[in-house]
Amino acid sequence: MTNLIGSLYTQSSYSILKSTLHLETIFKHAKQENLDFVAITDDNNLHGLYKALVLSKKYQIPLILGFQKTFKVLGYDLDLLIYAQNDEALKSLIELNSLTARTPDIPFESCVQLLNKLIIVLPSTQSFIYQHYEMSERIYEVISSLHKSLKNFYLGLGNATDFEVDKITPILKKIALNEDLKYLPTYQQSYEDEENKTTYDIVNTIKDSQFKSLNVSMHLLSKNELVKKYEQEKNIFKNVDAVFGRVNYTYLDNTQSLPVFPTKDNVESHIYLYALAHKGLEKRLENSGVRKSTDYIQRLNEELEVIHQMGYDDYFLIVYDFVRFAKTNDILVGPGRGSAAGSLVAYCLGITEVDPIQYDLLFERFLNIDRKSMPDIDLDFPDVKRDLVIDYVKEKYGLNHVVTMTTFTNLTTKTSMRDIARQMNLSQERINAIIASHTKGILDESDREAQKLVKVASTIEGIPRQTGTHPAGIILSKQDLTTLVPLMNGPKDIYQSQLEASDLESLGFLKIDFLGLKNLTMIEDILKLEQNKLKLSDMPLDDKKTFELLSNADVEGVFQLESQGMRNVIRKLRPSHFEDIVALLALFRPGPMQFIDDYIKRRHGDTYEKLDSDIDEILKPTYGIIVYQEQIMKIFQVYAGYKLSEADIIRRAISKKNRDMIDREKARFIEKSVRLNRDAETAEKIYNHIEKFADYGFNRSHSVAYAFIAYYMAYLKTHYYASFISVLMSQNTSNTAYLKELVLDAQNKGLVVYPPNINLSKLDFIPYKSGILAPLTMIKGIGLTTAKKIVELQPFDSYDHFKEKVFKVLNEKSIEILIHANALDVFGLNHKELLDQNNLNQTGFEQFLDDYKKTRLEELPFNTLKEKEIEVLGFNLKYLKDEVLIRLNETHKLKPLSLKEQSIRTIGMIESVKIITTKKGDEMAFITFSNGISLDLTVFPNQYKSYKELLSDTYVYIEATKDQTQAVENKYIINKIKKVKV
């Protein structure tokens, strides 16, 4: 028996905000100190399981895996350290940890069966022992009870303080002798050295503001320090060897597998997949009118062969199955995402909607026989229905076979500075000043207090602050995951792995991303408003009116095209065919943006240098610029005879700037090209061209798939504008400023946006008459729950009938809000009368009076009505233009205002004026102006000098020109202002 020197009680930073020790730090220290093992006992979790095993292998340091869990035993809260001493025990450790993580208050008795498969240590450093050290019989009673319940139970000695050595350790050693128990070294290690104690205290305070720093050292001990700590306990390190022996886990060697898809009549998966794919191809070709099927059949068979060789038949069948579930259950599925759109098999199975042969997409970019990696079919669903698909998968394959994944939010230097500054008792003003100086990089080096703050903050960098859930990914496994992966409770009644996505993928688990896309929800809602009378597949991709809308940059609400920068590019490009959209999505990113102007010039006829006839054909669609990764792969294939699978590996290396491989491959590329009778000088030029663009090349498969979504939305906006804008408004009901812009856009296109109607309005904007009807949910002060109850009570015959039905739902204040929102106008009373009669307690008394007659009252002033409407809706829908404005425009015979015009002449109201001073010291103004439509007017210095006296008038005549620098249509520049007689 040998001495194994180390502590069994080390917690990493995965003990969320209870330790500052990164796993790498722990193993580096153990290697430097020549310690015999590392034991990780994080606080009720196994988040570090995979990374600890990898580091153990890297540093060649034996690892003992465990965790700490608090159980209530005989009425006392006891911290137990729980370990696995072999592979079989590791399964039990994972199962127990999953159980306790999912059920934090689980009784000790419910866990005894699993605990008896593990090693359990009661460490001396806990409240129960400290509180009862003068009543050793109570401590003895508890330890004896644990000993009777647990097969492999031991005591832990911390020996961290003199008090512990003098008072606690003797008691426990005596009990150990009486109970025939071994004791083990459990000095708690939670930070690197004494300099890091401040960081440790701050981290704990972030977790618990009531945390009290203890005068106890918990730093990583050297080997000599450990030996000295336990010099009075002669056999303690021999006991480690006796209890654990030589622990060695083979967890990293485990192979994971997908569930076997339940095929009809138990046909083998690859045979079933082959039949499904070929049947799907027949339907696809029939629907598209393609007669020449040889290319399709050959490619389909080649893809199926690769899929089978790599063992992914079941994977494709599983994805096919849940996509089919979605499509047959009124759940829209995106046309594709990422490189999976390059698979003909995926297209034939209905997983994607992009024909990879028609759009020149490459299967090898997705699945490469020469690059052993997991397939990655990411799928988009409407964000409100994504969980329905995950539920289907969970029900089909079992709760213990489908899990989400954990993410970690880490502390950063910047985000931690305020927490640290509070510990240093700095004032708020001082904190703000230091942070501002640090952010700008101008921190005074002589400011010791500030320097200390930044130094301590830097030590916090990368420590996990909290856990979250991966936004899209799930793991699907053939094996029961409860003994394979530590689990915790996740969202929506689905378990969550305690390991993050990269750990799970490295272990060989298959991740599938189920992404919720708001734009698919929008498309689905538009189709419903149109009563599903059109299909996306029926939309022609060469619709002239759609491209007119795009060329005018009228792209508000259009997927991935609506940013200001993208609009500017669209105006210059003037897209006229589908490939323009594909290229836009690939080019409008940091990096390739520098080629946009060249692309646009060439697109409109500028000449450019040609390289070689074969290469020019590949780059012809993008005018000699390498825009797509697939183009690089094809150049390697066509010009130098590479296999596409080989070309993809080289493309990756070049894009990652692997200099050795770039130089090595350059020589090989030229050599292979020359063998094909190519010119060496030209080959070198082409390779240099590839190298220049490889870092910027984008996945064409993804760009094509997402171009479909962008085009569909543009088509729907063009031909079904009322439904389009209704849905877009409904998605942004709570964003008043943006909603106002959308209302303006609708009005400018000739639609009336009607105020809420108590009998007709629902929870969303809906097409109505010659325009759009606003929902009850846009009324400030009427929440969603109240709006739902009102909708349930609709319709209302009269004001009195309304008050009777809503008596238990609304109060008089709510009714007043509905009045000012114009929702009760349907009852034929003006606002003054509605307000006069809104007393709920008097409702219905008139039925007992034969001569009862309601008093007619004069309506509230226009400006009051207008102000109240803005108050409850955020802007005006009804009270846009008063009688004076109507009369003035008619008198001066001015045509109705249209924002389609580049220049306008109209009379309206000045609602607000903001005066600013330019850098040159000149005054200018920004005016909010209304003539039924709200305008934002800019008055530059020269005009301001001429017209500033008129800006105090309410009604003025203006002449203005559209501001071409702004995307919003209601922005104009003042040319002239005149006074008008009212």
UniProtKB/TrEMBL annotation:
Superkingdom, natural source: Bacteria
InterPro entries: DNA_pol3_alpha_NTPase_dom, DNA_pol3_finger, DnaE2/DnaE/PolC, DNAPol_HHH, PHP_dom, Pol/histidinol_Pase-like
GO molecular function, one term: DNA-directed DNA polymerase activity
Catalytic activity, reaction form: DNA(n) + a 2'-deoxyribonucleoside 5'-triphosphate = DNA(n+1) + diphosphate
Residue ranges of domain Bacterial DNA polymerase III alpha subunit NTPase in the record: 272-516
Pfam family, one: DNA_pol3_alpha
Gene Ontology biological process terms in this record: DNA replication
Domain DNA polymerase helix-hairpin-helix motif: 750-834
Keywords associated with the record: DNA replication, DNA-directed DNA polymerase, Nucleotidyltransferase, Transferase
Residue ranges constituting the PHP domain according to the UniProt record: 9-155
DNA polymerase III alpha subunit finger domain segment(s): 519-674
Its EC number(s): 2.7.7.7
rRNA processing recorded as keyword: no
PANTHER family on file: DNA POLYMERASE III SUBUNIT ALPHA
Name of this protein: DNA-directed DNA polymerase
Originating organism: Acholeplasma laidlawii (strain PG-8A)
